[in-house]
From TrEMBL, chain A:
It comes from the Bacteria. This is Uncharacterized protein. PANTHER family: OUTER MEMBRANE LOLAB LIPOPROTEIN INSERTION APPARATUS, PTHR30634:SF14. InterPro entries: DUF5682, LolB. Pfam families: DUF5682.
From TrEMBL, chain B:
This is MoxR-like ATPase. Signal peptide: none annotated. GO terms for molecular function: ATP binding; ATP hydrolysis activity. It comes from Methylorubrum thiocyanatum. Residues 85-223 form the ATPase dynein-related AAA domain. It comes from the Bacteria. InterPro entries: ATPase_dyneun-rel_AAA, CbbQ/NirQ/NorQ/GpvN, P-loop_NTPase. Transmembrane segments: none annotated. Pfam families: AAA_5.
């Protein structure tokens, strides 16, 4: 007769793991049955591989549809991991006994609305604290969903995590009795809980399968069988040898649908393990648990010392005296709250009050590095393929792209579905660090054509494995990568570039995250120029969309948010610019004006126009910027020729100084001189100013004015020159009428203007050199 | 105004230990937990005193502080470990109120207080001299005029320092010896005053005020810092503003209708959004201005809006009456804050349903 013991554990609980380790050492089982996917039984020995470094995850997926997959993450402190290592070291038989995912992932398993294409199925229901249901659920359903939460509430703790942490995880030493007590508590809880209709069948089938596996192991004649399962299941598995249970279980497990499932080890990260990243059976504080697991005793002092070291690394003040004070306060708080040792909460509050002087920024650092942690796992290089690799191969096959093939160029016609999919695929690979294809300028510049140069590097396989930590497919991994890049991006312009990338890679799912990040960054950014840099590419996207026919409405919403922000800060941003900065600012203003014109929304146009007008009214802003603002307003008919002339005259008046005036002209005229051709009164003002300069000043300003005119198109220069050369020349007809016109005097200016404007090719050749 | 207020014989405001003497007595009576030396009740009882609760005897303790229990626990645990406590927060977060009640509950008096100002001298912190005695008899213990700090050290009680960061840095440094050595030397007499058990210090300071004297890191290290946050929910903040404005209205006899809840909600919403840097729906961020935008300021904005409405308007608080006050509270730095305010108007206020009148009024006055 086999000795069968059930160990109800909490997934990812270091205290639970420690108790389990001691219990297994004492029990020395020759067979360990672990709640896990039997589809991955063959992979268990790899857990002891020297290159295997937790956190890692077992991924079980359908090879035909890698999106349909389940993750089983393990950290060094996960009881299941401890059990696996223990079993391998002791040479015991190890088996996963959960209901195979070949069944759980099959179409038509369990409740019909569990569509196979929804988010990855989470196979660990015990520690699940799922999102609140849309309508208030009956109390029993709440117990079912979060059994520990209910126990914790009874004990007066805010949530299940903290309760377990205080009562079990933080206990020093290992206590085998814990398992019996947990079994009893769960039995009591399960008695009160009504089955959750949505999950009832899955749970029943899983427990039936586990019971069957226990019976099978007993029949095979193992002497000591250890069953390691989530605490919630203990009472159900206790019944494995109850009368009639075998028959009932067989009935439950009959005629279940089945699909093909594959399994793989994949590197994982603490960040993904943490609750914060949305993994439902995760833990709030992996790094803290890691510390608890690796350092028995004096954890508080160690953790606080690490916090101080971390602060010092980041050039923040943290004296050893403060560490001592923090430890004292943490002890006092723990005593105050009736605990024998400080919990993470106590330490956190103590660190905040003493080490960080209640400043939230260093606390954020501590939480990121010492509570959640940034540890990354690794898997042996020769372990079987991950879903991402499978997805990669499937996609390559579907899109008829061959990784090993010789380098070469392909041209894609984005109007064809396969080519469009290829383009998306290559763009996604680029995002996960595999620049297989390199975009080339397509000949003909048709927007529906793309040219790619393909070269494959064998070492990119590693990138594929690494990518599986971020999703089950290439698309998911790419989206995950984009999300983390969006989190890290510091400039708004960077984010706006990312949005373009997303549309190229058809990752609409991640767009919302990036747009959110962009809006947030834009809202707090004090760098108006950064906002302005972000605008033009977005406007183009919003206006023309993409050949890839992605939905551009969200982009438009971003633009609607950015324009008023840029407008509000424009005048302040343009203060005290030197010549180079003014040039850059001018270019940005022109680009944003173009973007606003492209969007064609009257409200945005009004807001931006108002900002330009305010800028045009500035007295102490660099002339090049103001001149361009006036010009843009004039081009947009926001001001008429008379007002433009007035502003020009004011800017060129002696009081403003000649150098700023020249800068003003530069801003006003550069790149396009049509205003001077069609607005003769403006030409007259410029001409009058130029002629009014005294010799020294004229020589000083000549290069600048020359440079300005050099930016005009030759045809424009010629036209301006011709206007000036005509009798009457620059002087306005009206002016000529009132003051009379002296051709002889006018002619005196002509050589100089000719020199400046180079009206005839014959004369300009010499100057241009 | 013709009404002639009768001069009240009663004290305008009672100290915490007098106003809540009954509660303190009841707490002491039912308190059976260990007390730190010279404390008149246990730390747990102090927390109960601050946050309110029902005693085993059925006595109801009123809450003095409405907010996070954990903060109060950290504060009390700090004082129990003989570390000094620094309460930080923007104006209107009940720093002084908490400090007063902590002192009253722990040692029975909240009156050992040094009010920090730019003119606070070392004498106010250490000791002064009775010059008549000093001249007549020379330096002696009788001629020493003890500061509240020195008295607290002698008696083993809690001393309070208000507005610590307003005290000039040189003077602040006098606290270092007191806090680290727990003694106060009197070199003239070649003596020192050693702190008795139970002595501790609670300081308050404003953490977002400009132009204050930043604490030296030596002094900072001797304090445990607890930040008292602004009211946690908008409803709580609205309630505070409403009650305070109502009492202000009575005090100044403003002949206006009591402000509509809608207008108060608006002011509080704007203040909270700008203070926290995120819109009330949590959907988008907004830039934060340099000012503190405390609840106290919101109260004064509504108050002055009310006065405007009463004396220059139709007696009903309108968006127009509030706009200038709000803009004044937000725009403290004429350049940067003006951008923040403008941006906020354009990106948040403009889009909001039912806020058209406010947007128009704000644009008109901008």
């Amino acid at each position: 007769m086999s000795d069968i013991r059930l160990f109800g554990i909490r997934h990812h609980g270091p205290g639970s793991a420690r108790s389990l380790k001691a219990a297994l050492d004492a029990f020395a089982p020759d067979c360990l049955l672990i709640e896990g996917p039997p589809d991955a039984d063959a992979l268990i020995p790899l857990a002891a591989h020297e290159a295997m470094a937790p956190p890692v995850a077992l991924l079980v997926y359908r090879p035909d549809r890698p999106r349909t997959c389940a993750f089983f993450p393990f950290a060094a402190f996960s009881p299941e991991w401890v059990a696996m290592r223990h079993g391998i070291a002791a040479g015991a038989t190890l088996r996963f006994i959960d209901l195979p995912h070949a069944i759980q992932l099959a179409d038509g398993f369990g409740v019909s609305d569990a569509a196979p294409d929804t988010a990855p199925i989470d196979a660990e229901p015990v520690a699940e604290a799922t999102e609140t249901p849309s309508e208030p659920a009956p109390a029993s359903a709440a117990i079912r969903r979060d059994p520990l939460g209910e126990l914790a509430a009874v004990a007066g703790y805010p949530d299940g995590e903290r309760w377990w942490d205080a009562l079990v995880e933080s206990r020093a030493g290992a206590d085998g009795d814990v398992f019996a007590a947990i079994g009893e508590a769960m039995a009591a809880l399960r008695e009160g809980a009504e089955p959750d209709p949505d999950e009832a069948f899955r749970e029943e089938a899983r427990e039936a399968h586990m019971r069957a596996a226990i019976r099978r192991a007993a029949k095979e004649g193992f002497a000591r069988i250890a069953v390691i399962c989530g605490a919630w299941h203990v009472p159900a598995l206790m019944r494995h040898d109850a009368k009639g249970q075998a028959t009932a279980d067989t009935a439950t497990l009959k005629n279940l649908p089945k699909a093909k499932a594959a399994a793989a080890w994949a590197p994982w990260s603490y960040e993904r393990l943490a609750f914060a990243s949305g993994y439902r059976a995760g833990v709030l504080s992996p790094e803290w648990y890691d510390t608890l697991w690796h350092h028995e005793g004096r954890v508080a002092a160690r953790w606080l010392a690490r916090a101080a070291a971390l602060l010092r690394e980041n050039d923040l003040d943290a004296s050893p005296a403060s560490v001592i004070e923090a430890a004292r306060l943490a002890e006092a708080l723990a005593g105050f709250r009736g605990r024998s040792r400080p919990s993470l909460d106590d330490l956190d509050e103590a660190a905040q009050a003493t080490l960080c002087f209640a400043d939230p920024a260093p606390m954020g650092l501590i939480r990121r590095k010492l509570v959640i942690g940034e540890r990354l796992g690794a898997t042996p290089p020769d372990s079987p393929g991950t879903p991402v690799e499978a997805d990669f191969e499937a996609q390559c096959k579907r899109l008829r792209l061959k990784p090993g093939a010789a380098a070469g160029e392909i041209t894609l016609d984005l109007r064809r579905e396969t080519d469009l999919a290829r383009s998306h695929f290559l763009n996604r690979l680029k995002l996960i660090g595999i620049p297989w294809g390199e975009r080339r300028e397509a000949r003909g510049r048709g927007t529906f054509k793309e040219s790619w140069y393909l070269t494959w590097q064998p070492e990119w396989v590693v990138e594929l494995v690494a990518a599986s930590a971020e999703g089950g497919t290439i698309a998911e991994a790419a989206a995950g990568r984009v999300r983390s890049r969006a989190r890290e991006a510091t400039r708004v312009a960077e984010l706006s570039g990312l949005i373009g990338t997303l549309l190229d890679a058809d990752l609409a799912g991640a767009t919302a995250a990036v747009i959110r990040a962009l809006n947030d960054r834009a809202a707090v950014s004090a760098d108006v120029f950064d906002l302005m840099d972000a605008l033009p590419p977005l406007a183009e996207l919003a206006r023309y969309g993409s050949v890839r026919s992605s939905d551009t409405e969200p982009v438009l919403a971003v633009v609607r948010g950015l324009v008023p922000r840029a407008a509000a800060g424009l005048v302040a941003a343009c203060q005290s610019l030197d010549d180079d900065a003014a040039g850059a600012a001018k270019a940005r203003i022109v680009a944003v004006s173009g973007a606003v014109a492209l969007i064609e929304e009257p409200e945005l146009k009004a807001v931006w126009g108002e900002a330009l007008r305010a800028l045009a009214d500035q007295e102490h802003v660099h002339g090049r910027v103001v001149g361009r603002a006036v010009r843009l307003l004039f081009d947009d008919r926001a001001i008429d020729a008379a007002e433009a002339g007035e502003r020009l005259r004011l800017a060129l008046s002696r009081a403003s100084g000649a150098v700023p005036a020249a800068a003003w002209i530069e801003g006003f005229l550069e790149d396009s001189g049509t205003v001077l051709i069609h607005g003769r009164e403006l030409l007259a003002v410029v001409d009058e100013w130029l002629c009014g300069l005294d010799e020294a000043l004229f020589i000083e300003l000549l290069p600048l004015v020359r440079r300005t005119f050099a930016t005009l198109a030759p045809a424009e220069r010629r036209a301006i020159g011709e206007t000036l050369a005509r009798p009457g020349g620059a002087s306005l007809d009206a002016a000529a009428g009132s003051q009379g016109f002296d051709p002889a005097r006018a002619a005196k200016v002509l050589p100089i203007l000719r020199l400046l404007l180079g009206p005839e090719p014959a004369t300009t050749t010499g100057d241009a050199a | 105004m013709t009404s002639n207020h009768a001069v009240k014989t009663a004290q305008l405001r009672q100290a915490a230990e007098d106003a809540f003497a009954e509660e303190i007595a009841a707490l002491r009576e039912s308190d059976d937990r260990p007390r730190p030396p010279n404390w008149q009740m246990s730390p747990q009882a102090v927390v109960t005193y601050l946050l309110g609760g029902r005693l085993p005897s059925g006595f109801e303790v009123t809450p003095k502080y409405i907010g996070d229990r954990r903060l109060m626990e950290v504060a009390v645990a700090t004082l129990a470990t003989d570390r000094a406590l620094l309460l930080l927060g923007v104006p209107g977060t009940a720093k002084s109120w908490v400090s007063e009640h902590l002192a009253a509950a722990i040692c029975g008096t909240s009156r050992l207080i040094v009010q920090g100002t730019a003119g606070t001298s070392e004498e106010a912190i250490r000791y002064g001299w009775n010059y008549a005695l000093l001249l007549a008899k020379g330096p002696s213990r009788e001629a020493v005029v003890a500061s509240p700090i020195m008295r607290a050290m002698n008696e083993g009680r809690i001393a309070r320092v208000e507005e610590l960061t307003r005290i000039p840095s040189e003077t602040q440094d006098s606290f270092i010896t007191v806090l680290s050595e727990k003694t106060l030397p009197i070199p003239e007499l070649n003596e020192e005053v050693a702190a008795q058990k139970g002595f501790n210090l609670i300081a308050t300071a404003n953490n977002r005020d400009r132009g204050v004297n930043e604490l030296s890191s030596a002094l900072k290290r001797r304090f445990n810092t607890v930040v008292l946050p602004p009211p946690a929910t908008i409803e709580a903040e609205i309630a505070i503003v409403e009650t305070r404005v109502a009492s202000l209205g009575r005090a100044f006899e403003i002949p206006a209708e009591p402000p509509g809840a809608e207008q108060i909600r608006r002011v509080v919403t704007i203040f909270r959004e700008l203070r926290e840097g995120v819109t009330a729906d949590g959907k988008s961020k907004v830039k934060q201005p340099s000012g503190t935008l405390s609840t106290a300021e919101a109260i004064s904005v509504v108050g002055s809006g009310l006065a405007l409405a009463a004396h220059f308007g139709d007696g009903r608080l309108s968006a127009h009456d509030l706009v200038s006050g709000i803009a004044g509270a937000v725009v403290k730095d004429p350049v940067q804050d003006a951008i923040v305010w403008r941006e906020y108007l354009e990106t948040v206020v403009k889009e909001r349903d039912g806020w058209k009148d406010f947007y128009k009024a704000a644009r008109a006055s901008a």
